[in-house]
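Weekly modeling sync, notes
Attendees: AB, CL, MP (scribe)

Item 1: holo prediction request
CL wants a bound-state model with aspartic acid before deciding which constructs to order. AB pointed out that an apo prediction alone won't tell us much about the pocket. Agreed to run with the ligand included and paste results into these notes for async review.

Input as submitted:
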Amino acid sequence: MLIVQKYGGTSVGTLERIEKVAERVLKTASEGHKLVIVVSAMSGETNKLISYAKYFSPIPKESEMDLLMSSGERVTSSLLAIAIYAKGHNAISLSGRGAGIVTDSNFTKARIETIDPKPILSAIEDGTIVVVAGFQGIDEQGRVTTLGRGGSDLSAVAIAGAIGADLCEIYTDVDGVYTTDPRIEPKAKKLPVISYDEMLEMASLGAKVLQTRSVEMAKKLNVNLVTRSSFNENEGTLITHEDKIMEKPLVSGIALDKNQARVGLIGVVDKPGIASEIFGALAESNINVDMIVQTSGGSLGENITNIDFTVNRDELAKAEKCIYKFKNSHEIRDIQINSNIAKVSVVGVGMKSHTGVASKAFTTMAKENINIMMISTSEIKISMVIDDKYSELAVRTLHSAYQLDK
Ligand code: ADP
Ligand code: ASP
Ligand code: MG
């Protein structure tokens, strides 16, 4: 088989761990498989590099950030190739550029446009193990780009699609995808299988076990995706098409996203085009806006409204900068920022055909006296914004309310 294996930050977190990965890789190779390995930076390394840049500026120049951040994955890819070679097997490491990964120029969250499969395919032909630095590519101008946090998952899936791999295994520090983060709820259960769509929701709502865009890509390219632990031999979780799953639970999991902030625009002049202006400006700055709620300005007067929206906390500084020009032009009276919020979500394809799932979520929050600040729903999820000090409590009570621990 042709297999792509991706090892995350904890799995390559120390030199000893890299050696263990080399041994695991060699064992798979000895079973006759051709292997492409994708690695993350050592755990904590990307955060460290970002904090270095923030020493100089709260919003560091993005194109420089990418070259800086990509270095972490280069270190681990070359070290792993060195470790494998030292154990007597041929191995080479490739950067994103070397692996033919071309992206757009959206620095810090670039999208993959094409992957030339030739460099990897020709390197593995004679049994050489190719180790690719995850998380990165180059744009048309040849500048280094990165693929958004957790982006090595995407590198692995995209490479698996491009070279027509039989399997893409994501090795991490948990056994697979659980009904919720097992670090928050120890009673969480491992799911043997989950549909691409549910995994997509879980990931985009905060379950960082897989990066959202990697799941999107796996679905699009029909990649056989499995997550499992690099610390044991347990079977992991298969992510596949919904119609291949026999038993569909009502609710599959609870996701938590603490990396959220709420921006309240108070006293917005209510005229046609104002929302388009504000959110157009945010989009132009490449900021992802999640929930949006518009309410009446009440006592502020006629033709005045309030707009609340949420963004990722790491994009808050950029969002604030973008919004302030509206305040300066008096289209907004005041801006209120709240970073102490979290989004907790209930996900399940079974919701499509059952009623009462949402009301159960609201009742569960009420019983614990947790106030819900914002709600949004889709066919297969319910999300609630709450005070982040209740995050873990909310996750655990929802987990037990939907009997996910049974
Ligand atoms: P890696 O560095 O290997 O990419 P991540 O830290 O990105 O690993 O993702 C793995 C982590 O995801 C786990 O340690 C776990 O705490 C967290 N996680 C959140 N939700 C879930 C879930 N539903 N199932 C499994 N892990 C989850
Ligand atoms: N090192 C990058 C990050 O921490 C990419 C990854 O680990 O997937 O976001
Ligand atoms: Mg990850």
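Recorded for review: The first strand starts at residue 2 and ends at 7.
Action items: CL to compare against the apo run; MP to circulate these notes.
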